Amino acid sequence: MQKPIYEERLYSPWNLIMIGAVGLVPLVVLVWQLLVGPPGTRPAPSWFLAATALLFLALRVNFSALTVRVTTDGLCVSYGIIRHRVPWHDISDCRPDESSIAAYAGWGIRIGRVQGKARLGFTTPGIPRVVVGKRQGRCLEFAFSTRNPEGVMRAIRQGLGRA
Q: What's the DSSP call for residue 36?
């Protein structure tokens, strides 16, 4: 049974703005071609534009919040339905992430190479990150955004002491 040690939910207005702005494009084109555009001049099929707008709506909902949970079983960080879990036996250490966001080539769910190690990142613009060292896996480091790096690291160290 998982008992929470620490939990945090981050909302990023930047994620919502960026995904929303891109998602508005197919919606605007769809409305234009259905209501205003001259017949026979359609840049794309209406079904395709509607499906693309719905896809971006789903992405906007999924990536609206990043959830960080430290439980008695380990660490779980999720962007909506996309989760990354690290059990206690797989965590070797934790520390603040001092690397540039350029190492991840942006925000969201990314894989980058930092100091020769593959690193999975669940990141949000403008929010500090914590790096968790892993004992096994393709990515030996996992970085995630948190508004409270010290609190998260304290919770992880507390969990490691119990594991």
A: T
Answer whether 143's CB lies under 8 Å from 112's CB: no
Q: Is the pTM of this model over 0.70?
A: yes
Are the C-beta atoms of residues 144 and 66 closer than 8 Å to each other?
A: yes
- Beta pairing, strands 91-96 & 108-114: unpaired
Angstrom CA distances, 95 to 71, 104, 141, 147, stand at 18, 17, 11, 14
- 3-state class (DSSP) for residue 155: helix
Report the C-alpha gap between 121 and 112 in whole angstroms. Answer: 8
> Does the domain at residues 66-162 carry the CATH identifier 2.60.450?
no
Ramachandran sector of residue 60 (left: φ over 0; alpha: ψ -120 to 50; beta: rest): alpha
Enter the tokens of residue 17.
């703005």
- Where does residue 45 rank: exposed (0-12), middle (13-18), buried (19+ CB within 10 A)? exposed
Q: How far apart are CA 15 and CA 24, in angstroms?
A: 14
* Mean model confidence pLDDT for the chain: 89
DSSP 146: -
User: So what's the pLDDT on residue 44?
Assistant: 85
| Band of pLDDT at residue 112, cut at 50, 70 and 90 | confident
